[in-house]
Specification:
Layout: H1 3-29, H2 37-46, H3 54-66, E1 70-74, E2 80-84, E3 92-96, E4 102-105, H4 110-120, E5 131-134, H5 137-140
Helix pairs in contact: 1-3
The structure holds zinc ion.
Zinc ion is lined by residues 96, 98-99, 101, 136, 138-139.
């Protein structure tokens, strides 16, 4: 294959990737709930957005996470949930196990405490997560 064909093909692949990435971001920004990739996939399908396989969606989500355009949160069952990241500082999420709605909170002393524990046991490069789950008010409402 001549070089020019190949670069045209690369440009087409890049273009498709960009279009799909934009569609994923748009889907994520439609609401601020944490969702599984399958839920995002289903939403995109029903919105007749750009079509892509689940594998591609996973790759795009991973890429967006690296670029800090999405934030992730472990669901109670260990599955990874995603939502668009708005760039706010270190925080934790209280996540509704029913609908993925999340409230942010910070624990002032947590970073400090973690640092002290790490120091005591001579650990370095310490990272931590605090995940809190519950049922939000909307999900608690009895359905009529
Ligand atoms: Zn809820």
């Amino acid at each position: 294959m001549p070089t020019s064909d190949r670069s045209a093909e690369n440009a087409a692949v890049r273009h498709r990737w960009t279009t799909r990435t934009r569609a994923v971001l748009e889907a994520l920004r439609r609401n601020d709930r944490f969702r599984t990739p399958q839920q995002i996939y289903d939403e995109m399908r029903s919105a007749a957005a750009v079509s892509m396989g689940v594998t591609t969606l996973y790759r795009i989500l991973h890429k967006l996470e690296e670029q800090q355009l999405v934030e992730t949160q472990r669901g109670e069952g260990g599955e990874l949930l995603y939502r668009a990241y708005d760039g706010s500082a270190t925080h934790h999420n209280l996540v509704c196990r029913g609908c993925g709605h999340a409230e942010r909170f910070t624990v002032e002393s947590l970073g400090h405490q973690t640092g002290r524990v790490a120091q005591r046991f001579q650990f370095s490069d310490v990272n931590y997560r605090l995940d809190v789950y519950g049922t939000c008010r909307d999900c608690n409402q009895p359905s009529e």
